[in-house]
Amino acid sequence: MDFNLNEEQQMLADTVQRMVRDQYSFEKREGYYRSSDGFSPEFWQQLSELGITSVPVGADYEGFGGSGVENMLVMTELGRGLCLEPFLHSQIYAAGLVEQLGSSEQRRSLLPKVAAGEWRLAVADEEPGSHYDPESIACMAIPCDRGWRLEGSKRVVIGGDSAKFILVSAKIQDTDGVSVFLIDPEADGVTSQSYPCIDGPRACDLALNGVYVECDDLLGAPGKAAPALIYQRGRAGAAQCAEALGNMEEAFRLTLDYLKTRQQFGAPIGRFQSLQHRMADMRGELELARSMVILAACVADDPVSDERSRQLSAAKFVVARASQFIAEQAIQLHGGIGMTWEYSLAHHAKRLVMLAHQFGDDDFHLAQYSALLDLPRQVA
Amino acid sequence: MDFNLNEEQQMLADTVQRMVRDQYSFEKREGYYRSSDGFSPEFWQQLSELGITSVPVGADYEGFGGSGVENMLVMTELGRGLCLEPFLHSQIYAAGLVEQLGSSEQRRSLLPKVAAGEWRLAVADEEPGSHYDPESIACMAIPCDRGWRLEGSKRVVIGGDSAKFILVSAKIQDTDGVSVFLIDPEADGVTSQSYPCIDGPRACDLALNGVYVECDDLLGAPGKAAPALIYQRGRAGAAQCAEALGNMEEAFRLTLDYLKTRQQFGAPIGRFQSLQHRMADMRGELELARSMVILAACVADDPVSDERSRQLSAAKFVVARASQFIAEQAIQLHGGIGMTWEYSLAHHAKRLVMLAHQFGDDDFHLAQYSALLDLPRQVA
Amino acid sequence: MNIHFTPEEQAFRQEVQAFLRSNLPDDLARKVRLGRRLAKSDHQRWQKILSQQGWYAVNWPVEHGGTGWSVVQKHIFDEECAAAGAPRIVSFGVNMVAPVIIRFGTPAQKDYYLPRILSGEDWWCQGYSEPGAGSDLASLKTRAHRDGDHYVVNGQKTWTTLGQHANRIFCLVRTDPGAKKQEGISFLLIDMDTPGITVRPIITLDGEHEVNEVFFDNVRVPVENLVGEENRGWTCAKYLLTHERTGQAGIGLSKAALEQLKRIAMAETVRGRPLIEDPMFRARIAEVEMRLMAVEMSTLRILAATRDGGVPGAESSLLKIQGSEIRQAITNLMRKALGPNALPFLEHELEPDFDGDPLYQDYSAAPASQYFNMRKLSIYGGSNEIQKNIIAKMVLEL
Amino acid sequence: MNIHFTPEEQAFRQEVQAFLRSNLPDDLARKVRLGRRLAKSDHQRWQKILSQQGWYAVNWPVEHGGTGWSVVQKHIFDEECAAAGAPRIVSFGVNMVAPVIIRFGTPAQKDYYLPRILSGEDWWCQGYSEPGAGSDLASLKTRAHRDGDHYVVNGQKTWTTLGQHANRIFCLVRTDPGAKKQEGISFLLIDMDTPGITVRPIITLDGEHEVNEVFFDNVRVPVENLVGEENRGWTCAKYLLTHERTGQAGIGLSKAALEQLKRIAMAETVRGRPLIEDPMFRARIAEVEMRLMAVEMSTLRILAATRDGGVPGAESSLLKIQGSEIRQAITNLMRKALGPNALPFLEHELEPDFDGDPLYQDYSAAPASQYFNMRKLSIYGGSNEIQKNIIAKMVLEL
């Protein structure tokens, strides 16, 4: 049992923290948000030059081969800075899917480019009616000569508008299982509608009208991709918990500062006991969340098991509840100022609440955990 | 819309309040609790002399014919005094069942005696596995010559040890519906185990081994009693909400007094803002509970409808949550002293929490309400 | 004791329903139901319709053009308007400054301002809050000094709701800097066109322009625009705040939002079934509905007490807390009901003039924005913490 | 970074498990699991078994008979003991007064008292709280004045847990009434057989006799029973409180209680099905288990930090709050799981010597009593409100 970082890990954390501090002031972020890309290609470039984009990718594919712990360190800092780049969705989620499902040829052709930050990927697994369940999809792959034609629509593909390739989930006609196909968003039949999410990052909806995919564009065996999607959603969810942690720490810090400086009724409002206790409650939730972030990072790469699924669901649950609590209380303690667009806290709060809308919210994971509840063999 | 009491109602409330204040000091209650009856026969006698025992019984049977509002007024005061007499179970629940289900002969032979306080009744509808659902029972009525023989066991029959007759629910062999039978607890085949409940009142468990009941001892048509049980549990639950209200008011009063007098760190602890806000929260819950008590009293005697069921479940839910919150916070704000047997607050707290264990707790009524949720005709 | 409405009240409800059926424009009701933003013209359209019916100034005495309704009738009216999707009344003129003018104003002020409010000619906004003050309203710094027959106003107001539409603002200003906190404050009526006034938008976290900062740079206000006595403006302020807090529970709005929540939960699917059939989510809706029932009953109790001659006291603080918490809980569930569909930030779909096809569903664009917007409910009108202080002090005497 | 236990720690866990399998008496484990009350002899029996194994004084240095275990080993030991249903260690002697004696005591005190604690000859209780003091410990009034080679003690202590079994009490007494609050306090070791001591039971709301009042009427205590310096007893008190707070999260006990909750939910039925299959109740169990997982991870983090040389600071206040809330949540669910079966108050079924047939089930008598008893967790050891004050002051510097 060891909660210390090794020297390399500490250096990684420090590097990303410094980069974010230097490049991601709130004012700059506003600029990136309003730019055509919706994020900062320069910052991405720097992440790539310092090898950060390669951290999650396997060492066999010119990646750094980082574990859940390294992903945690990077994501915590990106979360603290409210960074808009699709690091999580491209480098961790999509790259993880390719590494788990892809043929060695697919991996070799894609992953080095991803590790280098040259190509970004995105995953299109949510649909209007899927509600966090990668198996509840209607998108169809209709077999045709030497491949398939994809029909259907995909929702909220984070980073989809700037991705080189998109991994699309679909069911092959007249079969049950889920398959994952690699598509070029520029391909015929793909219509993409891009927009910002309410918490900042850019996403798109996809309409797929007979999009042709070759046999080589299928990742893994036909109809067998669901376990990989679920496994990688677990890894991505763990990394997202770390993002929430960095964010919460910053929201907490801003609020604590505010309580110490804001004067009302002749004293800093932090003197009021009811607000002090609220801060203590927030601090408690923050510590529980931190513990679960660490747990999730440590088990994210474990082999599939009920225990891992329970731990990852518990992490998402605890972190989602803590995030919403801290977001709401941070606004409440700030008063009106906490609700204004021009103050960073409001954006921290938005992201903290909306993170639950990816990879399953607290209700979803409560149900997951509940289904997997470990029961004693003996009745009372 | 009128929330005022008429003169007669106000007089009723005042009368019971005065009686309770005079006869039911906490010290006296301790004596009643430890007595062989487990309550005060003298107090019951007084209730009867002043006509209070007759309040819930119909005017056709020498009762006062009071409505849910009158029941509310009586129960609020009995709740304030933590009274131990089985008024609710005998005069409201059991008498209500007899009035709804009984033949005119049964009503005429039982209700005047009940109204006069001469006979008490009890209802044996819970079983080890029934968990608030009067239809989930295993007790069996086996047809025999000119009647039935009852087999099975009944749990936590409140007031059962001092009842003249007990109304027992059972299913007639090889049929599905629930029937209610009137038994004499002294009859052959009845074994009764009496005990106090953790919140004070006396109850018993019944083992029924071939207890003979005549045709005349069946209340209502065979197998058709479930709706009446559910309806009367609604009435009784409404009255119990009023009992909780009187109790909560007293627990709140005791706690507020304590906050004003108890000194710590050089000031009355009521000066601490976090405790002030806690009291404000308790006051808020108390007001919501009061509103639901009034609502429940006003609809308790309405004809069966989904709307009435929803309102009564909502009342039980809101009151159960408020009761537990106020009980727990009252103890917490008192500190250790609030946990001692010799201080009345502890007993208020116990009763407030345990009231939910009769007629369905908050979870039970949340599920009931949920099942009856009123949905708009139009989807979004 | 009887919780049912009288036959007369029920008949009144039917009259209101009939009026709304024939007079509330469908497009307006739809915008409100879907949580879209409303244009100034939307508000004005509805204001005119109500005015024509004589139902706009529900809180005014009959002699000034009010309805003369009982508190119960007003409650029924509010509830039916909300259920039908009528735009919320912008209350700064009709329900805030007007009662103050009626109570404290000169005959000339009444004759001039009240008809202009009724006709919709004047749009008022509120100059109460200041950047440094927050919940400590009386610590305001905007000052006015007398110069001949004018006050000269300098300072800044903030959180001025819909100030961008307003041609008039009522302000609390400090006229005696030497006096104690709540003394030395005066209540002024100011024309927004007066030179020296600048309005700067504040964009809130949901991207909406609802509130503003208002700057006063040597703004000259005729002395006849003073309401009540100089340095006694706090009396007006308190009177107004009491009026503001009543009805803050927003029962009607919460009921309408709950209805919309149910519709969304019926339309959205989870694992191939409507979300409303998910036992846990359904129970969350049930729970909030039960609490709302309790808050509604509490509101009715207070209304009845007011009708019977009582003054809404600190109970209104309890209702403000509970009403805001319930409304927040409902928008929270609405956001959650959408799952991933809550993420897209499609501001154009929220605009008053949007009439294209939505990217997903017509109901899906607003809930996340609304959830964030509704955080204001526990902050403004006296934060919920301040309300608890009031309860502790006034009701519990701690 | 690695959350897994080392192979050595895992081997240690197996060793503990094997020891418990062979040495923990079944009847004792059953009583604990079912929440029955324990007799003095039950505690003593287990104490002897542990002592014989050399595993009783886990927190002591090896030279005094301690185990020399790491914090992680201690955690594993606690967890396995709780899981197996071992009686909780009564900590007043071995884990409270002993560390103080070891740290501040004279050689003579160490030689005399420590072996008697190890052997079980002495049963200690704690004389800290006083009727007027509550969470404000330092406001204590029990006084001791010097009379020759004795202190003469007068006053009253309360909430003295299991004082009825004790032959010794350690007390905070005021030796300098003129000094400031936390000064002028001394730490005394007192023989309960000394004339002038009266123990009066306090019965708690669950009918249990667990705590007592202890009265001191001119009790003569030899001066050599002073620990540390006169008037410097607060140093000992603070040292002891730090020791007390660590481990207050009670992870092992909560896990064992959660296990029992699941068993009850599997045995009780609702509408003919096991309660554990009810989606709402199951989700409530899942929720508390997830939170417990988080608190356990937090505990491990603090343990690791302690091992690496840190001092458990205000984090232990957070754990105390969270640990108590979780334990209370579990007993709440246990009570609810029983439905009407929670009502009977069958005290005889809870007694240590009960071996008859239960009226209903062997698991059904205790949960309601336990739920009420567990209210103490958020009150004692510094109420949860006090813990929040500590966090605000020490961690947040507000």
From TrEMBL, chains A, B:
Q: Which InterPro entries match?
A: Acyl-CoA_Oxase/DH_mid-dom_sf, AcylCo_DH-like_C, AcylCo_DH/oxidase_C, AcylCoA_DH/ox_N, AcylCoA_DH/ox_N_sf, AcylCoA_DH/oxidase_NM_dom_sf
Q: Which GO terms describe its molecular function?
A: acyl-CoA dehydrogenase activity; flavin adenine dinucleotide binding
Q: Which residues are in the Acyl-CoA dehydrogenase/oxidase C-terminal domain?
A: 239-366
Q: Which Pfam families match?
A: Acyl-CoA_dh_1, Acyl-CoA_dh_N
Q: Does the keyword rRNA-binding apply?
A: no
The cofactor required is: FAD
Q: Which SUPFAM superfamilies match?
A: Acyl-CoA dehydrogenase C-terminal domain-like (SSF47203), Acyl-CoA dehydrogenase NM domain-like (SSF56645)
Per UniProt, residues of the Acyl-CoA dehydrogenase/oxidase N-terminal domain are: 6-118
- Alphabetized UniProt keyword annotations: FAD, Flavoprotein, Oxidoreductase
Q: Which family is it part of?
A: Belongs to the acyl-CoA dehydrogenase family.
Q: What is this protein called?
A: Pimeloyl-CoA dehydrogenase small subunit
Organism of this sequence: Marinobacter fuscus
TrEMBL record, chains C, D:
What keywords tag this UniProt record? Answer: FAD, Flavoprotein, Oxidoreductase
Domain Acyl-CoA oxidase/dehydrogenase middle per the UniProt entry, residue ranges: 125-219
Q: Which Pfam families match?
A: Acyl-CoA_dh_1, Acyl-CoA_dh_M, Acyl-CoA_dh_N
What GO cellular-component annotations does this UniProt entry give?
plasma membrane
Gene3D superfamilies the UniProt entry points to: Acyl-CoA dehydrogenase/oxidase, N-terminal domain, Butyryl-CoA Dehydrogenase, subunit A, domain 2, Butyryl-CoA Dehydrogenase, subunit A, domain 3
Q: Which cofactor does it need?
A: FAD
Source taxon at top rank: Bacteria
UniProt-recorded Gene Ontology molecular function terms: flavin adenine dinucleotide binding; oxidoreductase activity, acting on the CH-CH group of donors
Domain Acyl-CoA dehydrogenase/oxidase N-terminal span(s) in chain numbering: 6-121
Q: Where is the Acyl-CoA dehydrogenase/oxidase C-terminal domain?
A: 231-395
Q: Which InterPro entries match?
A: Acyl-CoA_Oxase/DH_mid-dom (IPR006091), Acyl-CoA_Oxase/DH_mid-dom_sf (IPR046373), AcylCo_DH-like_C (IPR036250), AcylCo_DH/oxidase_C (IPR009075), AcylCoA_DH/ox_N (IPR013786), AcylCoA_DH/ox_N_sf (IPR037069), AcylCoA_DH/oxidase_NM_dom_sf (IPR009100), Mycobact_Acyl-CoA_DH (IPR052161)
Q: Which family does it belong to?
A: Belongs to the acyl-CoA dehydrogenase family.
Record-linked PANTHER family: ACYL-COA DEHYDROGENASE, ACYL-COA DEHYDROGENASE FADE29
Q: What protein am I looking at?
A: Pimeloyl-CoA dehydrogenase large subunit
